[in-house]
Amino acid sequence: MFSPQGPSLRELTVQALSSVERGYDLLAPKFDHTPFRTPDEWLGATADALAARGPFRAGLDVCCGTGAGLGVLERLCTDRVTGVDFSAGMLDQARAAHPGAELVRADARDLPFDAAFDLAVTFGALGHFLPAERPALFRGVFRALRPGGVFALPMGTPPPPTAPAYWVLLGFDAVMRVRNAVWRPPFVMYYRIMHPPAVGADLVAAGFTVESIDLPSLGHRRDGVPRSCLLLARKPA
């Protein structure tokens, strides 16, 4: 649909009517040929912002998908890099692209790590977690980091109601809510629940200290506000 190598409309429909896990298993072989993959510009901007705060030893990509974020960790970390995801299909793709990474199949809401990493990242995954699920996710990342470790979350700045993107995202979320009200299993993916201030408050509640860094290289809204920011959540030393 998006390119000759991407999924067809029929394939996307089947995936959208599946569970999150099954949907990503089906989409995995063609995922990198869709707009759902984190753009290289986002990956580069995140890596550049983190480089000044490194080097880091061990890195963890939470909800790693096909492994786009593993490349960021390989650039920044001097020791091992690890990706975790609950889709076996996505992990197969990540394994092929990053043979040197350790890949673990697990639910991000119940991460099986304890003080093992200095840097954790996640790219584009927060929309799969309802606000009530974020505390478990963030507590697991907090537990997985060593004292002084950093959790980096690049996020888009919500567009104002005067921007067409506001109404596109509103419409998408509305369609998803109707779909989940009438069809099982649910497919959780909402864009308008990822507000940086709310996410930051949940990170603080999990024990992190949080700062927000603008990513101006990713552009600005018409009102001059950067389109993207990087939340840096640090576990106290």
TrEMBL record:
Superkingdom to which the source organism belongs: Bacteria
Protein keywords: Ubiquinone
An example Pfam family from this entry, by short name, is Methyltransf_25
GO MF terms here are:
methyltransferase activity
Determine if Lyase is one of this entry's keywords: no
SUPFAM superfamilies noted in UniProt = S-adenosyl-L-methionine-dependent methyltransferases
Q: Which InterPro entries match?
A: Methyltransf_25 (IPR041698), Methyltransf_Superfamily (IPR050508), SAM-dependent_MTases_sf (IPR029063)
User: Where does the signal peptide begin and end?
Assistant: none
Keyword Translocase attributed: no
Where does the record place the Methyltransferase domain?
A: 60-149
Its recorded name reads Ubiquinone/menaquinone biosynthesis C-methylase UbiE
